Structures are given as C-alpha cells and as structure tokens.
Amino acid sequence: MIGRAERYLSPAEAQKVCFPKADKFEGQKLKLTVEQRKAIEQKAGVKVRNPEIRYSVAGDGTNILGVLMFDQVLGKHELIDYAAAISPEGKVLQVELLEYRENYGGEIHNAKWRDQFKGKTTRSSLKLNDDIYNISGATLSCRNVTDGVRRLLATFELVVRPHLLAAAQLPGAAAKP
Amino acid sequence: MKKRITTSAGTRRYTALEWAVSIGIGLSFAASTGVVCADERFFTYSQEAEVLPQGHWEFEQWLTHRYGRSGGLFSAWDFREEIEYGLLDNLKAAGYLNFRQTTDKRPGGASEFEFEGVSAELKYRILNPDIQPAGLAFYFEPTYNGAEVELEEKLILQKNFGEKWRAVLNATLEQEWERGSIQTGEELKVEFTAGVTYRMSPRWSVGLEGRNLRAFVDGIGFDHREHDAWFVGPNVHYGSKNGWATLTVLPQVHGTPNTSGGLQLEDHEKIEIRLIAGINF
Q1: Of the four, A15, A25, A108, B217, which is 20 to 30 A from B260 by CA?
Q2: Residue A74: which of B35, B37, B163 has the nearest Cβ?
Q3: What CA–CA distance (Å, rounded) separates B209 from B249?
Q4: pTM to 2 decimals?
Q5: Could you tell me whether strands A52-60 and B74-88 are parallel, antiparallel, or unpaired per DSSP bridges?
Q6: How far is the first Cα of chain A from the last one, in angstroms, to the nearest whole number?
C-alpha cells in the first residue's frame, strides 16, 4: 500500500544523502530562548513545537557546505521525522523524509513533491496550494511538512546562522543571504 | 437514520448470533482488503467535510443507546456496520447494515433484535477544511427495509482553527415513506447538528455536540410541526494510526410539546449515547 508507515533514513544516512561531498559532520544542539521562539513563530507563522533544535554542520575541509536541520511535525496522529539541508546562504538544498509513522499520507516521500522545496528561502511564500502543490489524500502531511520547512528556514536565519557566524564557522560577509 | 423504537412491519427478526456474524463478516472483509484506513470522525452526530482518500477502505461500527421515553418503558440499542470506500479524493461511498435491539420493560414485555434494513451513502467534498478557509460537503443517504424508504440529504460545514480546534455544522433534511395496510405514511424531519472539539494531544480530543430534531407530519411538507427536541452533551475522541473511537453523551435539554419537565419524551429519548469506532488494518 502506498504511504504505509516506513523508516527511510537514519540521521547519519540523511547527512550522506544531502551532503555527499562532505568529509565531516558536526552535530549540534541549541536551546531556544523565549525571545527566539517568539521571533521564529512571528517570522514563520508557525508554532515552535520543540524549544531544542538539532542540526548537523556539513564541511569539506575548511569549507562549510551547509547545515542539515532535523525536525518533527505532526501528521494525523503520529510525528513525521524529516530533515532539511540548508545552504550557508539560507537556501533549501534538499528535504528528506526520515520516518513516516502514519498508515496513509506517506506519498510526501515522492521525490517530485520534495524537490519543490529546493531553492526556497525565508522570502519564499512556502504555502500549500501556492508555491507548494498538494497531494490529494496526504493533505495534512503536505501542509505540516511545508509549515515545518518554513519554520526551519526562519530558525536557520534567526538562530543557527548567527550562531555559526559567532563561532566563526561561517565567513560573515560572504555568507549573507 | 431512523430513531423510532416501534417495530416496522416487514422487518425480519434476527438473533444476537446472526448480528455478531454480520459484524464478523464486515471485519473480515475489511481485513482482507489490507488497505483499510480511517475517515476519522471527531463527532458522532455531526458529519465532517473530510472524506477518505481515493482507493482506501474503512470499517466503522456504530452503537447508539437510547432510553428514557415516557414512563421509562422502552430502551433501544441501534447497531450499524459501515464499510466506506474512497471513490475519488473528494467523493466517498459507503454501505450500512442496520440492526436494533429494543427492550419493553413493562410486565410481560419482551426484547427484540431486528434487522432494520440497509443504507447507502455518498459524500462529496467541495471545499477541503485543511487547506481552504472552510470545509463544505454534500451528503446523501437512502435507507430501505422492506416497509420503509428513507432519504437523507445533508449540508456539511466545517471550520478548523489551527491544529487544535474544529467546528462543524450540519443541516439535514429527511423524508420517510412507510407502507401501511391502507395507505402510505409520510413524514418529514429537519435536523440541525453542531459541534466543537479541542485536540488536547495528538490522540485525545474533547468537545461538545448539539442536536435539534424537528418532525413534520401530514405529508412531505412543513405545514405542521409535530414535535421537536434539543440535545446537548459532551464527547471524547481517541485516534491513532490503527483506528479511532468517539463517544458522545447527549441528554435532551428541551422539547416541544412539553411532556415532562420541559422535555418531549413521547417521541424522543431523555438521553442518547453513541459510540462510533473506525478500525484500521
């Protein structure tokens, strides 16, 4: 059956799939402050479900190739694990589904649907039935993953990127979106 | 759906064993498809605008207990077994088997378990509440049991407020023809149901449902309202990827004509309790 609950990728596998040229990955966690949560929610228009964010910085030698941000959104009853690869400039490079637990609606794993996110930034609309098409029968999953990617982009721009700049992991001037 | 306790001529009496077998057949059929999934309902008296995705199956078991008519002499259990199928992503079809257990509590009274006929259903969604400002659907349900024909048309409105809140409003028109020994009886009913529910967690929701039922007699028209009753009560819903269940307790809060303490207990029950469970395989 299409859309049956399935585990697609582990976080380590997702790193390799999204950044095949990377020779190192540095996993990081950050706890969002109340102000940061509010700022993300205001920018993305989506609630922050988990104040702890988890991401992995992909590098090739001394170059930072991007950040893989891990997230969960609610399907109908179960959580959907997914990850978005974001370039240092703040563009979506790839969206990967890690685990889908619902019995139907898993058509969002379709590569064509996920490819729509490539190149999106915080300036993109990122709305279902606008610049992201809907899959009939998987509406809730489509809507919630779309909202989730919008939240991840806002989180990257407002929290992760400044954090990497402060840690001198990103070249400041060259990395502005 | 019929609400009368009295037995209609032409219905066949079934045993509890036969009823159990019918449920077993329904469950087996649902299991054999291997693709059953839920068209989840957060309310039991109101329909929602969402429909099953195309090509998916679902099995639902309905159970309604009604009691507290005048004198408290009757009580009834209504059983419905339903198989649903998504014809299109916005069109759902369903078939029902209807059974009823009635108990006469008067001295010498008996219990009866009867087959109450079959129903079919079509639900067509025009607006999807998950991606549009509000949901809108049309619903049509004919029922036949040998002596009666019943048609039910419903307009369904739904509004979701974020991920937590959802509200529904149904307006239903129900025509009924009953073949008698001398002439055919006709009745018209208008029913309004509404509900609001809050999702406390991904699996649990609680809410409130209301229902107003008005019956008109002397033909299919609105010339003479015979009786009406208002019901309001709480509901609770549990859902998971394998199935769901919703329970509503609906006491009558007002009825016309008043037969007992502001309630109409000649044609309506004092309280109704309904459980619907949808099973995934």
Answers
A1: B217
A2: B163
A3: 9
A4: 0.81
A5: unpaired
A6: 42
Helix (H) or strand (E) holding A154: helix A139-155
B184 touches chain A (CB under 8 A): no
pLDDT of res. A176: 45
Mean pLDDT of chain B: 84
Q: In sequence order, what DSSP letters do the residues of B122-143 get, joined into one string?
A: EEEEEE-TTTSSSEEEEEEEEE
| B28 Cβ under 8 Å from any chain A Cβ | no
CA distance B247 to B245: 7
**Cα separations in angstroms, B93 against A8, B83, B120:** 33, 8, 7
User: B241: which chain A residues are within 8 Å (Cβ-Cβ)?
Assistant: 5, 76-78, 101-103
- Tokens encoding B141: 């349900």
Could you give the 3-state DSSP secondary structure of residue B67? strand
Contacts across the A-B interface (CB distance below 8 Å): 45
Q: How far apart are CA B271 and CA A159, in angstroms?
A: 55
Percentage of chain A lying above the pLDDT 90 cut: 76
With CB atoms and an 8 Å threshold, state whether B239 touches A103.
no
Cis check: omega of the bond before B257, within 30 degrees of 0? yes
For residue A102, the chain B residues in CB contact (below 8 A) are 241
Q: Give contacts of B37 with chain A, Cβ < 8 Å.
A: 103-104
Which amino acid is residue B133, in one-letter code?
A: P
* B236 within 8 A of B230, measured Cβ to Cβ: no
ipTM: 0.73
3-class secondary-structure state, position B81? strand
Tell me how far apart the alpha carbons of residues B127 and A129 are, in angstroms, rounded to a whole number: 13
* Whole-number Å distance between alpha carbons of A75 and B208: 24
pLDDT digits (tens, 9 = 90+) for B24-62: 544 444 444 333 344 789 999 999 999 988 888 899 999
Strand order in the sheet with A63-74: A6-7, A92-100, A79-86, A63-74, A52-60, A24-31
Residue with tokens 């199935």: B243
Residues of chain A with pLDDT under 70: 1-5, 172-177
**Dist. CA B195–CA B189, nearest whole Å:** 20
> For residue A80, which residues of chain B lie inside 8 Å, CB to CB?
none
> Apex CA B21: angle with CA B16 and CA B25, to 5°?
150
Closest approach of A68 to chain B, Cα-based (Å): 26
